[in-house]
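Hi R.,

Here's the input for the nicotinamide-adenine-dinucleotide complex you asked about:
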Amino acid sequence: MERLSGKIVLVTGAAGAIGSAIADAVTEQGGVAITSDLADRGRLTHTLDVTSETDWLRVIAAIEASAGRLDGLVNAAGVVAIGNVEDTDFATWRRVMAINLDGTFLGCKYAMPLLRRTGGSIVNISSVSGLVGGHNLAAYNASKGGVRLLTKSVALHGARLKPPVRCNSVHPAFIEGPLVEGMIAQLRDPASARERMAAMVPLARFGTPAEVAALCVYLLADESAFVTGAELALDGGLTAQ
Ligand SMILES: NC(=O)c1ccc[n+]([C@@H]2O[C@H](COP(=O)([O-])OP(=O)(O)OC[C@H]3O[C@@H](n4cnc5c(N)ncnc54)[C@H](O)[C@@H]3O)[C@@H](O)[C@H]2O)c1
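And here is the predicted structure with nicotinamide-adenine-dinucleotide in place:
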């Protein structure tokens, strides 16, 4: 059975490990994935820098002209920066906040007029770093914690609409892909860092993009119609400890 039959879903960061897995899963489940990412990132429906209001307005106008509605939005674009509060420079802080938090805000804001036409579902990809802190993740923690509570505000607004627009946040721990590899490369002793990170997870491994995509399919589908404002950890038990 196709769980997203006929649903039109915009995915940001769709050239990335998680975003591309989500776009593939939407298509596999009978939906239409509208893919977006920065320019030169491969075959995408739209170029969309999530920090740019102009880009959002252009892409939403194009979707309105071609489809007239939107059933789902997945805000998956994101970056990580390693650094504690003392060694994170202001430019890095601003860049991480701009992509992870401003980008998610702009997506929710500008997609809402299309989503509210027929009702819809927003999935914001936060992180376990939006639930618990890390000494060397000052900017990332702040941005992903912001996404967590922005999600709840959007959900409460969307619940007042008729038909409603739902909004939930997903909080993965280490997921296989370039983002985690880049993070490991910045750590002291990268060779043992992967092992140490996996050992922190009760299920003793990293997650996969397909596992994140499976949760997103559930949140985009009508089967989750009573789920909104929720924060779903996908972390092998990391934050249960
Ligand atoms: N990989 C993990 O372990 C992990 C864990 C928790 C949360 N996340 C979150 O999941 C999301 C996807 O991560 P991923 O692992 O696929 O990383 P990734 O690096 O593979 O993909 C991220 C994508 O975002 C895009 N991007 C960056 N800046 C952008 C901008 N300004 N506008 C549009 N696109 C932009 C990049 O081009 C890239 O394609 C991110 O929000 C990340 O914070 C990842």
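One thing worth noting: The longest helix spans residues 90-118.

Cheers,
M.
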